[in-house]
Write a structure and sequence with these properties.
With 908 residues, the chain is α+β, with helices and mostly antiparallel strands. A hairpin with a 3-residue loop joins strand 2 and strand 3.
Length: 908
């Protein structure tokens, strides 16, 4: 008898008081020894059976279950992993010899389960390996275990699912022991992989296992159990040891020894007179693995077991995947059963948060999975997922979200790489552009293209890089929008888009692209709304969009009232609001909303000084070293009525993509005075007559308006003026038009203007000159970078140009330019007549943030800049950035001049 041999085997190894682990080892050795002796005795090939388990990296033992009768004997392995089985008194029945017992060649012992041994075997008929499971020798005498063994085989035969190993054959060996064969599974238990994953976290294991992949495995297990439940079968012993992972991503649910058909009594329950396993304190029947059994299973309430009992066990598996430890653990199986009955396991959320805080590398805590696990493990069955299918759906939704987040993360990484690449291209393009500018600046404009070729090549290379940079920018946006499609709530993706649109918003603002600004601001606000209120980036960008800055200014003398009026857009014009007294100078870091303003400084004994300011986004007007220069307040008697005082300060130059190659530059211009109006026909007539009265008729005739001669050195005929009896009079011009005395003077050249400047300077005692080009621009545009006197929109009715009239083809009186007035109060700078400037064509331009220091050059051979539109010109000429160069001998029907001078405070 095998039992007597077992007793002798234990005595032979001096193991009467052996530990549980030692008894397990001896049990396996005994089975092998018994099998080998039987093989020699019968002179047969290996035909012993074994329970199907798995290869564990070519080791021959696996996580064991355990058997216990109501006295708690025959412990085999660690209590939390052990499966409690019902036992019964011997009731042997007659065994049948299987006709095919000699058909299988047993090769090796693969493992040991609660009810049997599993061998790797060869089916010589098919020349293939199978797994052969045979009932434990010590259980063979109990019909109930044979019935359960048969039930397991029948259940496996009924379940045809890729995650459940198929059964091939059920039969008996010659000694009467029952067996069945099924697919041999080569792989590793989920229990082992869980431990490996947690020992490597957050890095993947050498086999590339991660928590994410374990959740994918768990989802497949849920699907397998949902299928099983649909067939009316519950497992009752789900645990990581009973889930096998193959080398090629296969997942199998194994060891169906406790399988139960829903709605039917278990064979062990139905059999009367059986001795059942009971807990020591209650006498209730307990079956399953304590650490993974539901409350109803721990209470022995077999009639209450259903799909939700398996759902609970699945929740325990998920707990272990997330935490790396079992939900319940204690020295003995019955201790664990007691714990399960008494209350929930340690909080998974607190456990994972503690683990995360202990790690040096940041790891995310999957709160959604924690909630899924907690619901699956709810103590009340009604609170659990009704089915494994619904549990699987919840896990799938989480996985789907995780997959999408991973894809979004990949796209985000690509986009960030493109940003870095774009930054490098930007630096290279800027360097090439600067080299090109420096090279071409040294080449006169009249030189041949061969001399300019190198500069053009540098420009082309810069343009190519800029094109690549623009392309990268759009590709970056596409990637980020795609990432957002995968993960609509991804904070990093929203932040990356905020960063992108903020850069574009800044560029659009520099180019004054108002439509783009509005669109980009809306996009920024959409993505900002996805960030939590406490997010620092959200706070920073909201401050950026609001744009408020600060104002600091002081005057000389101080103590002047500071009146502030804000420009607002009304009817397409920038219109000043009501002035508000904000205090007296000095003003220090006064918070002011972003926008364009006119400051008026008022102090008794001084003129009212108009001082436009622009509070740029987050900027401090007057906060830099130059900005701290006091605004000098001229006395009431220093300026004439038609003089306009332009205080020292910054202004925005260039930046008009339609009419200027100059980019926006912030330039400091020192204080100067400019005439509100151009020199009129009346004033010029007085000048000529004054010269004539002084006996300087030849000088006066040289300075008089004349027809174009067609030759540089020859003088044309007098035009609209004639000298009679030593006095200049107006007469009709060649077209028959009599010039209005209120017209700006026209058809004068550089020498005429120089003569007038000399005469007027002597008359007034001030050194008058023409305004330099950037002085003219500042006086016309103010400081906020507007394109026209009234803002960035143009209408011909606001000035005098070719589209401003239907039949009048002539200049207009300076007194009729009531709408064509600059922020400083200078009149007629958009239309009617253009202006000569004192700037030579090749005047050195200051860099952004530089100071404008032009030099007066009286050389009549130097070409000069002309600024402003004129009565017969196109609307484009009315843009205050527009300029053209002409020779000093040039006379034009549309060009006049106005006077300017540097401002120096009076010594009085």
């Amino acid at each position: 008898m095998w039992y007597k041999r077992w007793i002798q085997f234990v005595k032979h190894h001096n193991a009467e008081a052996a530990s549980e682990e030692r008894l397990e080892e001896l049990s396996l050795l005994f089975e092998q020894d018994y099998f080998e002796n039987r093989k020699e005795k019968n002179s047969k090939e290996k035909t012993d059976g074994a329970e199907q388990t798995w290869l564990n990296d070519q080791t021959n033992s696996r996580e064991s279950t355990w058997s216990q009768d109501r006295k708690g004997s025959d412990l085999i392995s660690s209590p939390e992993d052990q499966t409690l089985l019902l036992s019964s008194s011997p009731d042997l029945k007659k065994r049948k010899k299987d006709d095919f017992e000699e058909s299988y060649q047993l090769i090796e012992l693969l493992g040991k389960g609660g009810m049997g041994l599993v061998y790797g075997a060869k089916d010589p008929r098919l020349d293939s390996r199978v797994a052969l499971k045979i009932l434990h020798q010590n259980l063979s005498a109990h019909p109930i275990y044979e019935e359960r063994f048969i039930a397991e085989a029948q259940a496996l035969a009924a379940l045809k699912h890729p995650n459940i190993p198929p059964i091939h054959q059920l039969g008996y060996f010659g000694d009467g022991r029952i067996y069945f064969t099924m697919r041999e599974i080569v792989g590793t238990s989920l229990a082992k992989v869980i431990q490996e994953v947690h020992s490597y976290t957050p890095l993947p294991t050498p086999e590339q296992w991660t928590k994410q992949k374990l959740i994918e495995v768990f989802y497949q297990v849920c699907e397998a159990m949902a299928y099983s439940h649909s067939k009316g079968l519950i497992h009752r012993d789900l645990k990581p040891q009973n889930i096998m992972l193959g080398r090629f991503a296969q997942v199998w649910v194994v060891d169906w020894g406790l399988v139960k058909t829903l709605g039917q009594n278990d064979a062990s329950e139905a059999r009367s007179g059986l001795s059942q396993a009971e807990s020591e304190d209650s006498g209730l029947v307990v079956e399953g693995t304590p650490s993974y059994m539901s409350i109803e299973q721990a209470n022995g309430a077999f009639e209450q077991l259903d799909e939700r009992s398996d759902v609970y066990s699945l929740g325990c598996i998920l707990y272990e995947i997330l935490a790396g430890c079992k939900a319940y653990s204690a020295p003995t199986a019955m201790d664990i059963v007691k714990m399960v009955r008494e209350g929930p396991p340690p909080s998974l959320k607190e456990l994972l948060l503690q683990q995360a805080s202990n790690r040096k590398i940041h790891t995310e805590v999957p709160f959604e999975l924690i909630a899924i696990c907690e619901r699956a493990m709810a103590r009340n069955k009604e609170d659990r997922y009704p089915t494994a299918k619904e549990l699987g759906v919840a896990v799938y939704d989480w996985l789907e979200g995780t997959y999408k987040e991973q894809r979004a993360s990949e796209l985000l990484t690509q986009a960030l790489d493109m940003k870095a690449e774009g930054s490098i291209l930007s630096l290279k393009a800027a360097a090439l552009s600067e080299q090109a500018s420096d090279f071409l600046a040294k080449i006169p404009s009249w030189e041949s293209e061969d001399k300019k070729a190198q500069g053009w090549k540098l420009q082309d290379e810069a343009a190519l890089l800029e094109g690549q940079m623009i392309k990268l920018g759009w590709q970056r946006e596409v990637l980020l929008q795609s990432a957002l499609n995968y993960a609509p709530r991804s904070i990093p993706v929203h932040k990356a888009l905020i960063d992108l649109y903020k850069d574009r918003h800044h560029q659009a603002e520099q180019k004054r692209e108002l439509v783009s600004l509005t669109q980009l601001e809306e996009r920024l606000r959409v993505h900002l709304s996805a960030l939590p209120d406490e997010d620092e980036l959200k706070k920073q960008v909201e401050v950026y969009l609001k744009g408020d800055g600060f104002l600091s200014l002081q005057s000389e003398p101080n103590g002047a009232e500071v009146w502030l009026s804000k420009y607002t857009l009304k009817g397409r014009k920038m219109v000043l609001g009501e002035p508000t007294l904000i205090g007296e100078t000095p003003v220090v870091e006064l918070p002011v909303e972003m926008g364009s303003y006119r400051v008026t400084l008022k102090k008794e004994g001084s003129i009212d000084v108009v001082y436009p300011i622009y509070i740029d986004r987050l900027r401090h007007w007057g906060g830099d070293s130059l900005g701290k220069v006091p605004i000098v307040l001229p006395s009431e008697h220093e300026l004439e009525e038609t003089d306009v005082y332009i205080p020292s300060g910054w202004y925005m130059s260039g930046g008009d993509p339609l009419d200027s190659a100059d980019e926006f530059r912030r330039i400091w211009v020192n204080a100067f005075v400019i005439k509100k109006y151009q020199v009129t026909v009346k004033e010029y007539l007085a000048f000529l007559n004054d010269l004539a009265q002084q006996g300087r008729e030849e000088e006066a005739l040289a300075a008089a308006p004349r027809e174009r001669s067609g030759m540089d050195q020859a003088q044309g005929a007098l035009l609209a003026f004639e000298l009679q009896d030593g006095q200049f009079l107006l007469r009709p011009d060649t077209d028959g038009d009599l010039w209005d005395e209120a017209w700006p003077i026209l058809m004068v050249d550089w020498q005429c203007i120089v003569s007038y400047l000399k005469w007027y300077s002597q008359k007034t005692g001030h050194h008058w000159r023409l305004p330099f080009s950037l002085e003219w621009e500042k006086a016309a545009r103010g400081v906020d970078g507007r394109i026209f006197s009234q803002g960035d929109f143009f209408d011909p009715s606001w000035c005098w140009t070719s589209d401003s009239h239907y039949e009048e083809h002539a200049p207009k009186s300076i007194l009729n330019d009531r709408q064509d007035v600059s922020p400083y109060g200078v009149s007629g700078m958009m239309g009617n007549m253009g202006d000569w400037t004192g700037s030579q064509f090749e005047e050195q331009q200051p860099e952004n943030g530089g100071v404008y220091n032009p030099n007066w050059v009286a050389d009549p051979q130097v070409e000069r800049w002309f600024r402003g539109g004129y009565w017969s010109g196109e609307n484009a000429h009315c843009r205050l950035t527009y300029k053209q160069e002409n020779r000093a001998t040039y006379r034009a029907w549309g060009t006049s001049f106005r006077l300017a001078r540097a401002y120096t405070p009076s010594k009085e």
